[in-house]
Amino acid sequence: MAHCNLLVAIAAVVVLLFVAVVTTEASGGIGFNLHHRFSPVVRQWMVDARGGGHGVPGSSWLLPEEAPAVGSPEYYSALLRHDRALFTRRRGLASAADGQSTTLTFADGNATRLDTYEYLHYAEVEVGTPSSKFLVALDTGSDLFWLPCECKLCAKNGSTMYSPSLSSTSKTVPCGHPLCERPDACATAGKSSSSCPYEVKYVSANTGSSGVLVEDVLHLVDGGGGGGGKAVQAPIVFGCGQVQTGAFLRGAAAGGLMGLGLDKVSVPSALASSGLVASDSFSMCFSRDGVGRINFGDAGSPDQAETPLIAAGSLQPSYYNISVGAITVDSKAMAVEFTAVVDSGTSFTYLDDPAYTFLTTNFNSRVSEASETYGSGYEKFEFCYRLSPGQTSMKRLPAMSLTTKGGAVFPITWPIIPVLASTNGGPYHPIGYCLGIIKTSILSTEDATIGQNFMTGLKVVFDRRKSVLGWEKFDCYKDAKMQEGGSPDTSLGSPAAAAGDSTPGSPSGDYAPSVPLPWENNATNGPYYYPGRVPLTWPARSGSGSGSGSSSRVSFGGLLSLILLHVLVVTSVTW
């Protein structure tokens, strides 16, 4: 293939940088549909927010032509930087819990480490009456939701500002309110003060947000899927962010930030406590094509597999930790004991010996393709393979699983990262694949982490009330449990699929179908689909109407760094 101009790319089964649109699932829960930050949708939103594409010097919001192509080596490097940032945050919070010093500490609680690459998920939310739309960053390491509001010092990039005076449902939050917990400021102002001040500080170059708390409605949809659900106005307390500092002035979270932690001030906690969702839990469904779904209030099915959530060693009890007792590759098993963080916000899976060596060497001895090295950007993956000319599927995918505490078996249905290439600017096509497991020492972390790639083909339930992790093989498109049996689909994508054939397929057996991946040449205006088969359309470009053209799928993943697998992180609000 020396005559080809190959643009090697790892298929982002785990895609970071998302924008979410709040809609409904057929089950009646409230959830988010996600789009990665470099998708055409988000790129156009960025251009529109900048008044036609003129950026602000120093802003972290990249113009479309500046953003790395999805699946490019630069994009892949961003995934690893994101994982590294999460591990750094995890170590910092653990040190604070152990009484050790951190980079920066505050008197009223732990701080959240922030850098540009941590805000990899975004949600389009609607607040107030009449409603206004905001493109907010989702932070799983903090709790408070805040919006730029009555700005004294905010990023100058054309983002929407929240104005209490323009919303008929806006209310002030006085110091006597149960969610006003900043004793220093309230003691000075007195409990009768009409406005409760807030201040959130993040461990990154003096980055923070401050202002006053307000209450208004967050617009959601509940019940009856297909976009025909009942409108819900959820009363939410959030910050009217008058002063932003540090990274926020350079464009990070310019449209606001939604904390997704366990504290009572967070939006997930508010939804559960108000009874708007049936259970204090949420589910995440991951498909082979990278499309997924997060649904609040979903406790899963009665026959799903489950294991207790635990806390051990340096791992914070605020993370979703499980205990693993054995690993199996085909018929070969090894007893091993370790605790792992289950984290969809991490792109790949990180293991230490002996688990790493057992899984990788047994996988390596069972695949038929020849080993390959793909050069700079891919050296973190020790086990990569090349396909023969014209080959689009693995010849054999070994069965892999983890046995968890209590005996429940966690199936690993798709641990593969496809390697794609484009010939002379044509459609991307598979040329190989890598095993998406990285040794923990590569990123200088001691924590084993089950990343989003190990959750592919499953619906994973995080039941915060029962303190259990549940899972089952699931068809995210049909919102139905997979039938057991059948042969695994080992296809890595096809030229036709990569060219933009994105008609939702029907899976066979117990694996999700082979579907197109969201490469740049697919990025055209037109409808796309996500689990639940509810169509959305690309935002209309100025002067182009609603747009038309071939359809494409938009990638999902890293999820809820939505969100939410760090939802239990120690709060970062300094009250």
From TrEMBL:
Molecular function per GO: aspartic-type endopeptidase activity
Compartments it resides in: Cell membrane
Main location: membrane
GO CC annotations on file: plasma membrane
First and last residue of the signal peptide: 1-26
Database matches in SUPFAM superfamilies: Acid proteases (SSF50630)
Matching InterPro entries: Aspartic_peptidase_A1, Aspartic_peptidase_AS, PEPTIDASE_A1, Peptidase_aspartic_dom_sf, TAXi_C, TAXi_N
Region (Disordered): 485-517
Membrane topology: Lipid-anchor
Keywords on record: Aspartyl protease, Cell membrane, Glycoprotein, Hydrolase, Lipoprotein, Membrane, Protease, Signal
GO terms for biological process, alphabetical: proteolysis
Active site: 139, 343
Peptidase A1 domain sequence ranges: 121-472
Entry similarity comment: Belongs to the peptidase A1 family.
PANTHER family named among the record's database cross-references: ASPARTYL PROTEASES, EUKARYOTIC ASPARTYL PROTEASE FAMILY PROTEIN
Listed name of the protein: Peptidase A1 domain-containing protein
UniProt source species: Sorghum bicolor
